[in-house]
Amino acid sequence: MFYHSEVLPGYIKYFNDLGYKCDVLLSNHNLSIDPFYRSRHLNYKAFGFFYFSSLANIFSCHKQITKYKKIFVATTIIADDDAVVQDFVSAIGKNGELYKDKICIMVHSLFSIKEFNLQKYVDNNQLFVLSNFKTNNYPTLSPHYYGKVKKDKSKAEMVRFLSVGRIEPGVKNYELLFQAARELLNNGFTSFKVIFIGWSGNVKVDADLASHVEIRGKVDFKNLHEEIENCDFMLSLLDPKHERHFMYSYDLSSGSNLLSMAFNKPYIINSLFAETSGFDTTNAVVYEDDDLFGAMKKAVTMNQTEYNQIKIGLEDLQQKIADLSAENLKKVLN
Length: 334
Description:
Blueprint: H1 8-17, E1 22-27, H2 28-32, E2 44-49, H3 52-58, H4 62-65, E3 71-73, E4 77-79, E5 85-87, H5 88-91, H6 95-98, E6 103-107, H7 111-115, H8 119-123, E7 127-129, E8 159-164, H9 174-186, E9 192-197, E10 213-217, H10 221-230, E11 233-235, H11 243-246, H12 255-262, E12 267-270, H13 271-277, E13 284-287, H14 292-301, H15 304-333
Parallel strand pairs: 1-2, 3-6, 6-7, 8-9, 8-11, 9-10, 11-12, 12-13
Antiparallel strand pairs: 4-5
Helix pairs in contact: 9-14
């Protein structure tokens, strides 16, 4: 399947805003979970497929494919419904060479460029990255549109923190969060709730935190987006001391970054990852080292004026990246 189908409305909107309509090809699974439920108004048609073989056959229909000005590949790595993983260019076989001038590729990891031999797409200005880390000059195309969302929520008395993504050590330092939650309680700060959304494996919440920390597990897009709208702050939970996490400072892109900007939810993030992602103290709650407790305490005690200032800064960052993304896409399409 095409991973991360939730970002497709964001890409479609960029194309629509530049005057293009889109035919969208995605796996039947991703079509069934309906990433477009808030964006029916966009100019697109969606089509599903089952296996790699059918994908190659689709791209063999040359008369049909040649009508498209560009073929935008939203993710380099795909997997079919039997969980067989392959890169897109290999999946479409010899047609990859036939349509090489039409194909534009989005990479979520810079390592994919070397791993899948994509340098020719870099050289021809046909490759985009989700995040433009300070260590590279690849053009950014960052989707921040998930349909019509509510952005005007005031900070609540009972502050809601939200973490989105797999709850496992290689993705989130959830133990640091548990420690920070305990410190808040031990210091008399009880007006908060932490919600985890995402695959959780065997992670359990201890009894002393049960009334303040909740693991929801995997949910559909509708429930995910409603939870984001209802929260006050989003949590990154990336730890620079963890080797896998550290890769998010120079190679991997975090989907939580995109959600924070798209829904205008102030982000609580370690300074290393903030610096390489465009976040700072004007648009996020940034902390040093392991001081997540200090950041969450600041969030809980923040007044409405301070909260609104961060939201304004975050809106400015989102617009800056969106304008840059649109300009980068326009250059490729012209």
